[in-house]
Amino acid sequence: MDSFTDIMDYDFTATFEDSLDKVANGDLEWKNVLNDFYDAFQNDLISASQDDGGMKSNQPISTNITCPCGKKTMVIRNSSSGVFLGCSGYNDEGDEKCKTTVNLISGDEAVSVDDAEEASNLLIKRRCPKCSTSMDNFLIDENRKLHICGNNPDCDGYEVEDGQFKIKGYDGPVLECHKCGSEMQLKTGRFGKYFGCLNDNCGATRQLQRNGEPKPLAMEPIPLPDLQCLKCDDHYLLRDSMKGLFLAASKFPKNRETRAPKVSEIKNLSNELVEACRYLEDKNKHVYLTSAPTHDKDGNPYVIRYNKTEDMHYLASEKDGKKTKWTAVYVDDSWKQNLKD
């Protein structure tokens, strides 16, 4: 924000709206208004990119904490969702590259195992040994607590406190794990809250929806190594979502290609669909799609689409990338083709 003070100013929107009103009334040329804005914004970008006086850097802070990989130490990283530990070998190449991360739990959630009465003292923030700013504290595990300077990443001050800690008694919602039957509790990660299985040998998770309910179980992704992406050097996965089945590049988020699958591309996946839906109430949820006609009566390939209102998949054929008038729906255990007028 320091590099874009004019745009982030509260008066900017009002002033810009006044200029747009003048454009609407014919008092100003719209090109001149946009050019003035772009010139100022371009200068801000140039200023922000300068090493001296530009945007504040967000460099990782080195620590002496050993990475679980055993080869490197961890660094303190900042993201839009908070602070976390990442392996210092993340940018290395080949076998030396390590993507291990450790989520940090807020120290406010900790109590001392040795002396519960000292729990309130654990909330007292330390002062940074380098700049004397108050430090935020996080649990690494049950034996270590990490104190990070409040000026992080501008200040690289940190301290590791040894002891015995535990998370305060859990009193939130619980679920039964769909994979192993163990208890799932609400946790907080880099991307927000989620339900995580307490069985260390399971590791199942379920996302938390905005309405506070766990996301409904969906089919697990099915790898399709022989089906190459059209726009990138990757292969597809067959995925399920609230909007139905779709094909997605396997290397998401690096590759973000998605599209609707053709019937011919999932025709021989009956066993794979059953296996991928093994945790759902209906394991055969999508098997009926494999019995669908691959082409309409004019020889055009059918594509699998989803009707959110009816909560059902249907077929719509395409020719040269455009929909034809042929559709098909699954009714009374059979596919009915229809040609729209």
Task: Tell me what you see in this structure.
It is a single chain. This protein is of the alpha+beta class. The chain has four domains: 2-48; 61-167, no CATH class; 174-207; 222-339, N-terminal domain of TfIIb (Single Sheet). It is built from six helices and 22 strands. The protein has helices at 5-8, 10-24, 30-48, 119-122, 263-266, 270-276, and strands at 61-66, 73-79, 82-87, 101-103, 105-106, 110-112, 135-141, 144-149, 158-162, 165-167, 174-176, 183-189, 192-197, 205-207, 222-228, 235-239, 246-249, 258-259, 302-307, 312-319, 322-331, 334-339. Strands 1-2-3-4 form a four-stranded antiparallel β-sheet, with no helix packed on it. Strands 5-7-8-9 form a four-stranded antiparallel β-sheet, with no helix packed on it. β13 and β14 form a beta hairpin. It is extended.
The number of E-state strands comes to 22
Mean pLDDT: 87
Output the CATH topology of the largest domain: N-terminal domain of TfIIb
Describe the largest sheet. Answer: 4 strands, antiparallel
Q: Count of helical segments? A: 6
Strand order of the largest sheet: 1-2-3-4
For the record, the CATH architecture of the largest domain stands as Single Sheet
Question: Which structural class fits the helix and strand makeup?
Answer: alpha+beta
* Residues in β-strands, percent: 25-35%
Q: From the alpha carbons, calculate the radius of gyration and give it in angstroms.
A: 28 Å
**Helical fraction:** 10-25%
Low-confidence segments, given as residue ranges, are none
Shape: extended
User: How do the SSEs run, as a string of H and E?
Assistant: HHHEEEEEEHEEEEEEEEEEEEHHEEEE
What number of domains? 4
User: Distance N terminus to C terminus?
Assistant: 57 Å
For the record, the CATH class of the largest domain is Mainly Beta
- What oligomeric state do these chains adopt? single chain
